[in-house]
Amino acid sequence: MNMDYDPVERLYDAILKAQTSDPQSMRANEAAFQELLKERGTLLRLQTIVVNRGLDIKARQLAIIQAKNITPLQWKSRARTPEEDLPIMRQNILSLVDEPDDVIARNNQTMAAKAARLDFPVRWPTLLTDIMGIIQTNIQARFSSNGMDELVQLKASRALGLLNAILKEFTSMKSPLGTQITTKANEALYPFLLPLVEQTSSQVQNTLSPATINHPVTIHDVDTSRLAWKCLIKIMLWAWNKARKPTPQEEEAFQRFFAMATSHVQLLWGYRLSIATSLRDATLSPEPGSLRCLELLTKHVKAFGKAFRRMQQTGIARFVELPNCNPLVLSYWDKVVQATHAPPDAIAESYTALYPVHSVVQGLAIFKDSLAQWSPVRKSTVSAMETDSSNGWSFQPDDSPWGVSYSLDPPIESPKEVLSEDLVKQAITILITRFIPLKPADLEKWQEDPEEFLNIEDKENEAWEYDIRPCAERVLMTLATQYPDYVSPLLQALYQSIILSNPTDLDQILQREAIYCALGRCAHRMKALINFDEWLNVLENEAQNPSPQYRLMKRRIAWLLGKWHFDDTRSLAVNKKVWEILLAFLTDRSEGSDSVVRLTSVVALYECVENNDFSIDAFEPYLAQVLGALFALINEAETVESKSRILKTINCVIGQAGLRIVPLIKAIADPIPGLWSEAGNDFMIKQQLLGLVKEVIDVRVMRSKPTVDIQEYSYQASREYSQALYGLIVPLVQESLAPGSKTHLDEDGAILWEAAIRNCSSLQAPAGQASLMDLLPNLVNELSDDLDLLGTVNKLLESYYLIDCPAVLQLCAPQLLAAYANAHRQAISTNIKDITESLELMLQLSGSALNWAQAMHTSGFFASLLTFAIVGKGSVSVVCDHFYVFSRMALQDPEVFIQLVVETAPSRSETPEKTLNSLMDSWLKFDSMAEPRHRKLTAMALASLATTGRPEIINRLPNEIVNVWLDVFGEIKEAESDDPDNPSPLHTFWTEGSEPPVYWMRGCENTLEEQRRKKVWSEDPVQSVKLTVYIGEKLSATAMRLGQDTFNSEFVNKTDADVFRQLQDGLTA
Fold first, then answer.
1. Which candidate, 425, 419, 412, places its Cα nearest to that of 378?
2. Pairwise pLDDT comparison (817 vs 214), residue with the higher score
């Protein structure tokens, strides 16, 4: 082995050692190898190993894989890759275009694409020119020779693969810089690729025949053409997506590309079908070359279908305007029609199938997405698009090697030509008879794993892109929407043809099931045409059939009932027979049913209950049995998806039942602990269980009793029954916040907690019973430690305060205020606002300053609040929130507030006088307080502080404080009420009505908390006490505290006479 320098040899040895199968040394060798990859210059060393074809092939493969993986980071880093290495590495990439090993070649292409993303066009301007030169040289060498030169063919294929990988990388870039790079690449490549695909396509037509499909030269020509087309398709699709309003030059390019593509894909379809047919009919096993040729043709045709689909998805209006678009769409539909006439096994997930599944799906999807662009207009004469069964294609023997010719009809002038009624009916018939019925493979999946079968069926929104049956259903729905005059009568006729007959064998059952599927998919249109009550009698009889084969019908009947009632366009009251059928399905454990029927009925039940015309009165007789059946099904279900469906339906039933659920609360609650335990780490199930309990607590009667006072019913339910659930709620919330579960369940647990506390009437519980007070330690811990939940935690604290704030403070004031202090030090501005708002409510409801003052000081929380307010380090609104907190303290007990300031001053290395003066300097920046309620609160707090007689306050009375009062007097108009019917003692003309604002209610409407919040709002001194009366009383108290002479000398005499007169006028107004 000839190594140029030691680092390469060392890296090569490490690669060899890393391939060992010895478990003991594998980890150490891998670790040593990873350390070497971090060294500077490693990328070039890896390439040096790759390009040395005399080395071990496995080592070379591992080297290129590692080089590809580290390219995005190391290529652009001069700390990892020296500048002088880059030209060598670029050349190494291009030198591997003749690499025979597919693994190395494929990873080299990916590496090149990642490097091109970083270097083209500035640092690697010749990249595309170099690759085009390699392609051109080797393609011309192939065209000029009839022989087989393997190296020429290899270089051409590898170079095209390299270009394709680079274009894939470029077209995936979404940034403006990426757009510039891709635009420059497209400008260079389009003039090169267009004639290239013409040449390679022509070469395929010249060389491909039944006699040559096994020849290496033919296989190479097909592959070369395929790769050239892939490159052209990438740049054209990128340009198509970007050019929403194309220029004439762009439009011409798109039309030329589309014309070439539509012409070539028709030829490829014919070639591919003939090869597949000949291999299918052959008596001997096909040769590898023939299979390879068929595989390449299949991929080639698939690429065109993907391109047409992409053009539709990104610009359907422009797509249908392209020349020959309509014949192309119908030709794809024609392939679908042909597939229906072929043997059953002709459609399969295999490239050797006559009609691979993806090709049928592409045909259906392309047809479907074009339907909306065609406006149906009845014509008396045959339209240009009315054709024979081949839909515009002629199949005539000629002298071609395939024995058939494919020709497109002349282009139709307008893309909005109508499909003929015959063609629409033909399409509907094909969909219902061939593609929508369940196939033997579907029945086998049903039998082997019923729940997994249902899980796949429920993914119809994804499956239609790759599976025939859901795609066919989408086509049916689109046809019904675009051609209702044709489709609706046809479906009605199908319904009439089967309603009076009973299927006698499996094929008839499957066909009937498909018709039911079609009717359900088009329920919004068929409701007006079908007498559902009449049909329901038929469905009821079918639902009672005990035959195991009728499981197919029962599952479809349940599905149909759900779809028929879930459609919102034509609401339909649920007949009691529907509930009886679904309940029978839910509880049937005979051979005539299975888990698919039961679980489908679960979903149907949800859809019927969610119906706009749902009546709880009609459903109530079945309520207990339905819930019992649903809970029984949870224990039987094996998959998370099935359990989730059932829980979703239970939640829906509870929510719609409202207070009718109250007598069943115990029956609902009893299974939940067991289900929770069985769920283990299935957190999705636990989330739904938490939601279920929340739904029980939060029962509503909006639909069942629309004329009854909702608040009255909610209050009654919560008062009488929520207490019984606390033994369940408390452990569920605690487990949701446990370390192993918190990441997944904390938000859902908090939602349940919020529902429980808002509907709670008392924090106390009888001895030995759980109460929500048991969760208070958890709440304190969350306040201190979880910044992500801080907003929710503060709302929960407010709910506790509203029920019994003194009890909360007596239980845990030191811990609570310490948690507040810790959260306040760490929180961002938004969360600090949450903290101050909940703290303000706590102070308002605390009952006495003795309940919080000591803990406020010892926890350091007051010092933290004081520093924040004085320094003003937050936003103006957040700083103001701190003064609202201080105002609440001052209103409740000004002496305690002053004492807190005095006790905190030493921690700031200040005298009490200085600290208090600093605080007042910040507080009296009154203009920052915008809301009238807060300005009045501040004015009242300043009046209350004056009663302490502190010089720092009294000295500010004549000027700053009086100015605040006069400002508020001018803004706020109030009058004491003498109306005995008015519950409020004060008319506040500065508020919009007497109801609390939305922000104050916190979304608690229709809970017990709603009344608590309204009561606190109305009893707040800011809302209930006239400001002038309050200030007058506090000034009198201040005069008594100071003595009248001192009061006069320090306040009256120092106040400007005009100002004092205004104050007197305001106080007597």
1. 419
2. 817
CB 92 within 8 A of CB 50: yes
At residue 378, the pLDDT reads 36
Residue-wise pLDDT for 450-459, tens only, equals 999 998 888 7
> What is each CA distance from 1060 to 632, 959, 965, in whole angstroms?
79, 10, 11
C-beta of residue 771 within 8 angstroms of C-beta of residue 809:
no
Kindly list the distances between the CA atom of residue 126 and the CA atoms of 166, 743, 921, in Å, as whole numbers in the listed order. 14, 51, 70
The mean per-residue pLDDT over the stretch 1000-1017 comes to 91
Contact 557, 603 (CB under 8 A): no
Q: What is the mean pLDDT of residues 303-307?
A: 97
The pLDDT value given to residue 570: 62
Buried/exposed code over 698-731 (b: 16+ C-beta within 10 A; e: otherwise): bbbbeebbeeeeeeebbbebbeebbbebbebbbe
860: alpha, beta or left, given left = phi > 0 and alpha = psi -120 to 50? Answer: left
- Which residue is associated with the tokens 């929104």? 461
Q: What is the 3-state secondary structure (H, E, C) of 17-62?
A: HHCCCCHHHHHHHHHHHHHHHCCCCHHHHHHHHHHCCCCCHHHHHH
Q: So what's the pLDDT on residue 882? A: 94
Question: Is residue 640 classed exposed, middle or buried when 0-12, 13-18 and 19+ CB atoms within 10 A define those classes?
Answer: middle
Token look-up 């693994």 returns 103
Residue that is written with structure tokens 């809302």 in the block: 1023
Give the C-alpha separation, 362 to 312, whole Å: 12
How far is residue 6 from each of residues 49, 89, 840, measured CA to CA in Å?
12, 19, 72
The torsion defined by the Cα of 676, 677, 682 and 688, in degrees rounded to 10, comes to 0
d(CA 1050, CA 779): 49
CB neighbours of 194 closer than 8 A, spacing ≥ 6? 232, 256, 257
How far apart are the C-alpha atoms of 167 and 146, rounded to whole Å? Answer: 31
Q: How far apart are CA 709 and CA 658, in angstroms?
A: 13
- Type of residue numbered 795: K
Instruction: Please tell me the distance from the alpha carbon of residue 701 to that of residue 722, in angstroms, as a whole number.
Output: 16
Phi, psi of 324 (to 5 degrees): 65, 15
- Cα gap 1011→1023, rounded to integer Å: 16
Coil, helix or strand for 910? Answer: coil
The phi and psi torsions of 834 (rounded to 5 degrees) equal -60, -40
pLDDT tens column, 873-905: 778 889 999 999 999 999 999 999 999 999 999
Whether pLDDT at 716 is above 60 = no
The Cα–Cα gap between 1002 and 1004 comes to: 6
Structure confidence by residue, pLDDT tens digits, 565-576:
886 666 677 889
pLDDT above 90 for 672: yes
The mean pLDDT value of the chain amounts to 88
CA 841 to chain centre: 37
Is the pTM higher than 0.70? yes
Helix, strand, coil shares of the chain, percent, nearest 5, are 75, 0, 25
Kindly state the greatest CA–CA separation across the chain. Answer: 127
DSSP conformational letter for 976: E
